[in-house]
């Protein structure tokens, strides 16, 4: 039912999109879809982080508006069907979209579902990963039919590590959650520590034992538990939290035993986007999004916007609507796209990861942007973030 | 009586007026006025919220400021810096260009994908022209017949007929085109691309790119080279390109399109303006909150002058 409404709304919106200013030949349609796979789970720790119903889709709508404005001058018309699925129905929905002839599908899903969908799609569609951060998806489990617009854990961890080293805070107290995605992010943080010369003085696991989150007097428990949990750690400069499951990290700032800054999954957080970003022309981008969605932009929206903008940019530059032409161009070294990050974003050919700066954000503001200027690279400074060509474990095979 | 006094003041002030340099300070919400000979600050005046684009009428009597967050163009007496009136601009005006005759004014509305045309005498909106996403750069041909708008996310230079207000050609350029500037005989159009890192040299008759200027500065990361403002000397021989966070202004041979030199200026240099005699070129340096003064003949930076918060645009009063 819900999905039905969303598809219907998308249809109305498409009809309402601005008509060409002058009479022109019938535009060529370039179709795509956004498939969001919602996993049932607990609400986030902070109610400010409750996901909007149009999470990701609002970014898609802005991208289609942007693409269509340019498309008016090129005789191109862009569309993106919006689909909500569960992990159980995701494959079925993917099949339906492929059956409709959709060649480009932006996927917002967890690592496992993302990989399953890539294998299911094979060479019948190009997928854009706009949410899953697992390094394995860009490494041993890489797939030639997937472009990663979302940053990898390794990129996020390296972005944070560069800043912490610049601050001269090399002693890290690593606290990781007990979920697999927490362990994956923690592994990336450990790799970053080695790469940039930080030292992890202690690792602790915060077990998710369930229990009442956000109850009436939850803060009383937090105020007692967090100092106790963090006491007697060896001397450290910062706490680095790996809590992708959103179980404990948000409780850490101001509650640690030692007065140390919290980074990672709370405190200073590496991200692709933040609604307070104003640099590099982002103000007008935020304004346009907020006017359209009536809420601030989230990372999922930014990543979906960027994926669809890549398709738009490829269509404009190649002056083609042929999915094969667009695919080849997007994966070529000539491809570049602007994403309000102060520099062109390009594709890594060894794992199909989009290169991009990582924002380091506090609650209300942007604190810094990595790569930090001191970290140089002979090809692209952006390759100081994440898995570089010589280290990659990705070997593209023909899709099965 | 008061009118006569004002008139007398204006007449007396004319020679001084020719030497005034106006710098819009985006975060300071004001304009810093400099003397182009002494290079001293004359004063700082409030001009509304988020002032960016700034220009002056050919007769030097009206100073126009895009007050982006007020969704207005504010018009000031350049001598007294008192507001005379406002012009409707459409939402979020960023940059504009005045017809060589002084009327109308063509304004880029960054948030609304429009160019708004406003009559500077009747204060009426003459047209709203739909363009690409995030219109910014505005240029006009020396004969006043063609208006150029660049759209930052669409990545095009749109050629607009200045009388019919119709787009008649679009030229795809590199990422984030910020500025469009003709040379004085109208034979070349320069369009800068901030993220692409290039300046496209366009043949305006054929509406085709004839050359792309690339920049390379030893010891500066390529990502930091972000071309924005462009100015051409009236003889067409020297082209100056502001290169944003690389803190350099490139000097280009206007005939061969070769880069001749890079001049070190303040931080995040965006816009530039010549004095009418082209002795000096002023640059706005948004991150160091100052203006660099370039000696055009010697192609040397001779001075930097502190101005307000985040200087954005600059214009010099005509003779």
Report on this model:
- The complex is a heterodimer of chains A (400) and B (319).
- Chain A is an alpha/beta fold.
- Chain A has 2 domains: 2-151 and 274-356, 3-Layer(aba) Sandwich (Rossmann fold); 154-270, Response regulator (Rossmann fold), CATH 3.40.50.
- Chain A has 10 helices and 14 strands.
- Chain A has helices spanning 2-16, 57-74, 90-99, 111-121, 153-166, 180-196, 218-230, 282-293, 299-318, 323-330, and strands at residues 28-37, 76-85, 104-108, 126-129, 146-148, 171-177, 199-206, 238-242, 262-264, 269-271, 337-338, 344-345, 358-361, 366-370.
- In chain A, the strands form 4 sheets. In chain A, strands 2-1-3-4-5 form a 5-stranded parallel beta sheet, sandwiched between helices. In chain A, strands 7-6-8-9 form a 4-stranded parallel beta sheet, covered by helices on one side.
- In chain A, β6 (171-177), α6 and β7 form a beta-alpha-beta unit.
- Chain A is globular and about 70 Å long.
- Chain B contains 1 helix and 28 strands.
- Chain B has one domain (2-316): YVTN repeat-like/Quinoprotein amine dehydrogenase (Methylamine Dehydrogenase, Chain H, 7 Propeller).
- In chain B, the strands form 7 sheets. A 4-stranded antiparallel beta sheet of chain B has the order 3-2-1-28, with no helix packed on it.
- Chain B is mainly β and 319 residues long.
- Chain B has one helix spanning 2-17, and strands at 20-25, 30-35, 41-46, 51-56, 63-67, 72-76, 83-88, 93-98, 105-109, 114-118, 125-130, 135-140, 146-151, 156-161, 167-172, 177-182, 189-193, 198-203, 208-214, 230-232, 238-242, 248-253, 259-264, 269-274, 280-285, 290-295, 300-306, 311-316.
- Chain A binds chain B through residues 18, 21-22, 66, 69-70, 72-73, 281, 284, 287-288, 291, 313, 316-317, 336-338, 342-344, 373, 381, and chain B through 92, 110-111, 113, 130, 132-134, 151-156, 158, 166-167, 170, 172, 175-176, 195-197, 221, 223, 226, 245.
């Amino acid at each position: 039912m819900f999905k039905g409404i969303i598809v219907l709304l998308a249809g109305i919106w498409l009809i309402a999109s601005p008509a060409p200013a002058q009479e022109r030949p019938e535009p060529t349609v370039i179709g795509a879809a956004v498939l969001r796979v919602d996993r049932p789970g607990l609400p986030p720790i902070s109610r400010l982080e409750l996901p909007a119903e149009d999470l990701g889709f609002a970014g898609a709508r802005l991208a289609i508006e942007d693409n269509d404005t340019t498309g008016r001058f090129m005789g191109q018309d862009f569309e993106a069907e919006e689909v909500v699925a569960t992990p159980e129905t995701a494959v079925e929905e993917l099949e339906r979209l492929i059956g409709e002839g959709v060649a480009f599908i932006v996927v917002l899903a967890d690592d496992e579902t993302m990989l399953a969908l890539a294998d299911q799609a094979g060479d019948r569609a190009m997928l854009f990963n706009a949410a899953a951060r697992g390094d394995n998806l860009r490494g041993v489990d890489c797939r030639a039919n997937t472009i990663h617009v979302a940053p990898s854990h390794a990129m996020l961890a390296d972005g944070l590590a560069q800043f912490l080293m610049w601050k001269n805070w090399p002693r890290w107290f690593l606290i990781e959650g007990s979920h697999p995605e927490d362990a994956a992010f923690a592994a990336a943080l450990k790799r970053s520590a080695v790469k940039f010369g930080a030292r992890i003085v202690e690792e602790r696991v915060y077990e998710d034992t369930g229990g009442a989150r956000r109850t009436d007097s939850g803060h009383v428990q937090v105020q007692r538990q967090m100092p106790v949990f963090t006491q007697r750690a060896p001397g450290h400069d910062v706490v680095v939290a790996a809590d992708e499951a959103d179980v404990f990290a948000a409780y850490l700032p101001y509650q640690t035993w030692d007065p140390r800054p919290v980074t990672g999954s709370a405190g200073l957080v590496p991200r692709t986007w933040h609604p307070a970003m104003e640099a590099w022309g982002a103000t007008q981008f935020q304004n346009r999004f907020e006017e359209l969605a009536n809420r601030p932009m989230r990372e999922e929206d930014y990543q979906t916007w960027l994926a669809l903008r890549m398709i738009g940019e490829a269509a404009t530059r190649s002056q083609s609507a042929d999915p094969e032409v667009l695919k080849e161009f997007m994966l070529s070294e000539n491809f570049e796209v602007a994403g309000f990050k102060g520099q062109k974003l390009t594709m890594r050919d060894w794992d199909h990861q989009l290169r991009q700066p990582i924002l380091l954000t506090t609650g209300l503001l942007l604190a810094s942007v990595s790569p930090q200027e001191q970290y140089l690279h002979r090809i692209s400074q952006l390759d100081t973030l994440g898995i570089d060509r010589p280290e990659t474990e990705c070997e593209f095979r023909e899709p099965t | 009586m008061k009118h006569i006094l004002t008139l007398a003041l204006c007449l007396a002030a004319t020679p001084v007026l020719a030497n005034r340099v106006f710098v819009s300070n985006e975060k300071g919400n004001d304009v810093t006025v400099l003397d182009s000979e002494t290079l001293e600050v004359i004063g700082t005046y409030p001009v509304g919220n988020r002032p960016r684009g700034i220009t002056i009428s050919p007769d030097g009597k009206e100073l126009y400021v895009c007050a982006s967050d007020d969704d207005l163009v504010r018009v000031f007496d350049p001598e007294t810096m008192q507001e005379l009136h406002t012009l409707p601009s459409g939402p979020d005006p960023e940059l504009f260009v005045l017809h060589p005759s002084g009327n109308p004014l063509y304004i880029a509305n960054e948030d609304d994908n429009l160019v708004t045309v406003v009559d500077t005498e009747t204060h009426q909106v003459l047209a709203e022209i739909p363009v690409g996403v995030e219109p910014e750069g505005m240029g006009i041909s020396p004969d006043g017949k063609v208006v150029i708008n660049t759209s930052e996310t669409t990545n095009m230079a749109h050629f607009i007929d200045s009388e019919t207000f119709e787009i008649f050609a679009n030229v795809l350029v590199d990422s984030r085109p910020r500025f469009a500037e003709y040379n004085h005989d109208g034979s070349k159009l320069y369009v800068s691309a901030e993220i692409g890192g290039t300046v496209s040299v366009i043949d305006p008759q054929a509406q085709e790119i004839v050359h792309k200027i690339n920049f390379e500065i030893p010891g500066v990361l390529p990502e930091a080279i972000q071309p924005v403002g462009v100015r051409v000397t009236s003889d067409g021989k020297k082209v100056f390109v502001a290169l944003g966070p690389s803190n350099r202004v490139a000097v280009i041979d206007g005939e061969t399109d070769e880069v001749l030199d890079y001049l070190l200026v303040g931080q995040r240099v965006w816009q530039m303006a010549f004095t009418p005699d082209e002795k000096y070129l002023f640059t706005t340096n948004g991150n160091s909150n100052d203006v660099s003064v370039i000696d055009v003949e010697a192609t040397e930076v001779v001075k930097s002058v502190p101005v307000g918060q985040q200087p954005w645009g600059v214009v010099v009063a005509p003779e």
